[in-house]
Amino acid sequence: MRRSIVSGFVFILSILLLTPAWAGQSVIRILYLNDFHGFAAPHRPLGADETVGGLAYLAGRADALRAGKPSLLLAAGDMIQGNNWANLFRGRPAIEAMNSMRFDAMVVGNHEFDFGQQALRERISEAKFPVLGANVEGFDGLKPYVIRNVEGIRVAIIGVVTQDTPVSTDPRNVTGLTFSPPAAAVRKYLGELKDRADIFVVLSHIGYEGDRKLAAEVRGIDVIVGGHSHTKLEAPVKVGATLIVQAWEHAKALGVLDLSVDGGRITGYHGHLEVIRPVPGGEDKAVAAIVSKYQGMVDRTLDERVGTAEVDLDGENVRRRETNLGDVIADIMRKTSGADAALINGGSIRTSINKGPVAAKDIYSVLPFDNYIVAIRLTGGQIRRALEYGVSAVERGEGRFPQVSGISFTYSPSASPGSRVKTILIDGKPFDPDGVYSVATNDFLAAGGDGYTAFGEAVRSSKDFAAVGGMMKGEKLVYSDAGTWLRDVVMGYIKEQKTIAPAVEGRIKEVQ
Fold first, then answer.
1. Domain count, the chain
2. CB distance 445 to 169 below 8 Å
3. Of 294, 324, 352, at which residue does a domain stop?
4. Above 50 in pLDDT, residue 18?
5. What confidence score (pLDDT) does residue 23 get?
6. pLDDT above 70: percentage of residues in the chain
7. Sheet hosting strand 402-405, strand order edge to edge
């Protein structure tokens, strides 16, 4: 009798040992956030009727959605840079809040490099979660992947960032680094991990169109949690067998994806976005304390009133059309440098300013990057190349779209990229393709940043070109003030004017 009991016990034990941990159906919940850019406080976007966002409220909602469910909380990049709340402390507040929220993983975004490699190493060392970057070579601290065990389901998370990082941050920030094609990196690690995981998630900072292309090219990806393009995907999009999700921007939404899993395979899914609003009692108290602590320091530093805006200053649409905020910043750059014209990429203008009092913190939010004004001698042909490049991706809303002063031009968005610009006037006169003009921009574009090779080539072709201590010099640079940030110049202008009310002047016009 005893022998039969022992034998039965051994048989049952052997069955248990041989049965996979994931036997039977379960639901895994993936919560996700992307392109936070340090917008920790609730805010009212330009033209909106309601206040949205707030990291403490997002954290509170995440807590509620995780309760009692096997879950992962993921961040798809551009978390530590953007708003003053993060920028004044080089991203430290964002990491502190993410630690409190118990993130499971984050992929590095292109703007994670904006404070330089040493600052990024410090932020990674502070993080209690892995920071991923499978296609970044030469930077210690980034992991290619992480495997999480969720209720017995092995979830492999592979992180990739855009190959355009070297042109979307200051080139000096990525010296010595290589950004390989995301598809090649994902394919490599899918092969290496095929026997070590059940579900494969790519945490991506390459943009929605890049995610669609990745899903079409690389088999074996179950889910792509995306970022970089600030896309508001209300529900998952399926490309082949791959689900693609993305949760808008600035903590205005939290993504929720429920995966039904049976036998280690996804058998069903449901996903949606939770719009985040500052609901009384809905905040996570620990995260609220972190937000308040750093916001208090920001306010004490930047609460100085510098002037008044009599109209809303539009920084929301700078990637698609001329705006009054783009006009006034370009005008200030041209006036300060004494140049014939000015051009700045829309992506360097990060937010709007609502009508009313303007504080120093508003200007810091609009112009968070440590950039200074330079003016370069360009031929008319080089100016045309720069404008063609600037409007070459207007349909995708990329940051290269130009905001200009002293220049007016027409372009056809339906024409092929590279042949969209139709007419160009400089100082109200037809431009001379062989003439030479001085054009004000910032040091980022002057170095060829955001893909503006016409600027970079012109600067480097100077006979005595040099970059010493971060300041560019050369006979083609007619103005260069590395000691004064562009935002400080803009603040000085508004203080002098006291009141501003810029209007869109029709410098950039669409034609058929």
1. 2
2. no
3. 294
4. no
5. 52
6. 93
7. 402-405, 341-345, 436-442, 373-379, 477-480
